[in-house]
Amino acid sequence: MRSPQLSLPERGLQLLASVRPGEGRSIGLMLLQVFLLLLAYYLIRPVREALILVDGTPEVRSYAVGAVAVTLIFLIPLYQLLFDRLDGQGGKSALMRWVMAFFVSNLLLFSALGALGVPIGVPFFVWVGVFSVMLVAQFWAFATDLFNLHAGKRLFGLIAVGSALGAWTGSQLSGQLFASIGPYRLMLVSALLLGCVAWLGRHVEASVPEHSRGDGADVEESEPQPAPRPGQFLGGFNVVLRSRYLLLIAAFVTVINWVNSTGGYILSTFVDRRAGQLVAADPTLDPGAVIGQFYSDYFGWISLLQLLLQMFVVSRILRCLGVRTALLMLPLVMVANYAMIAWMPLFALVRVTMIAESSFNYSVHGTSCHSLFLPLSRREKYIGQTTIDTFFWRFGDLLHALMILAATRWLALGISQILLVNLALAMVAFAIAVLIGRRHERNEAASEHLPAQPVAATARMPIEISASGATSPPAAPVPGAVPG
């Protein structure tokens, strides 16, 4: 019997990643899905900025950023209740479709209220902050649930090309559409795109070939923990706090975003100084135009490098070097960046290093972080990953804001001292990445030794890992083990 052959589209995709026969359709559908998702977000991204500055002030905007994290504290337990209610019903895409429907209904409501003249600037800004992290987390939780460990490591870098294309396309179109149809109709366009993402869910689920699909049986929790009781307020956070592996990932995501946000502050300081120097040399220049032109070029280079890395580099890094090595790359780039800037605080150097950091952050780092959840249980993939990618990510923003407030208002630190603090934080992120990499390899080994079981199985024997790496079933089931 002849083995299946690659189709013509799959042969083309083979240039970018290691593709197996039958995977072309699922790759194409997931590329389209994440493209539409990021396009929907980037279309309304300028709307939130315009509305909050019309209805409020820059100070109000700063308070609204903090309100996003507070909102997530209350939203995540509700998300956990929805997961418990839908788990095992309606297929793997059910949870994502429900969450998409919720955000579509919100967009329709905001559009109607805005058209009626109701001031929605502040609540819409907070809502977009939640929307941006929640829906991306849903997509990648869905992806880690669909694909098995080896397929996910091969294909996630390629699938993430869709997010880079969606972000770039949305950035190009948002200004034109905002001017031509206005902010409230632009919300309707975004809602329509999200509806398409939800509709594609079932088709994506059915398109994954058997050899690439997760085996349908849930794996054990990375560390045994009691199942959260229905209605327990902190149930979603408990999934993270009771697993050392997830807690390390949460700490890593928090510190990385803290460093990245502080890097943005450092860059803006150098840009402001540079603009002042240019205007002093040529008073006919407009400082705002100088700064705007810099950031336009800056984000353009980031988008281009992100796309190139995602298309030609990320999949090969994950396949050849593994997730553990890929996870170390962004912290290493950050350590090198802030060490060089502290040594030579030159504007040209800051520009190049920050472009490199952001490009790695949005490509290699993002995809490797999503891959960390492949060997985990469904509860950890959905609730754990969503909690980390939403609340803990935004918590890094809060820590950055508090640090800058303390450094500038209370401690009177200069940019040189802030650079050294950021360098120390980057080193902390590197140390955490090393610990995560070790635990990830242990989780991979455990998941590879799990026998395939039918979805309807109600009892399982968890796998224990000895110091030598061998696996064996324990003498008795772990109390409180969570079923798939």
TrEMBL record:
It comes from the Bacteria. Residues 209-230 are annotated as: Disordered. The keyword Membrane applies. The keyword Transmembrane helix applies. The chain crosses the membrane at residues 27-44, 64-83, 95-118, 124-143, 155-171, 183-201, 245-267, 298-318, 325-350, 391-412, 418-437. InterPro entries: MFS_trans_sf. This is ADP,ATP carrier protein.
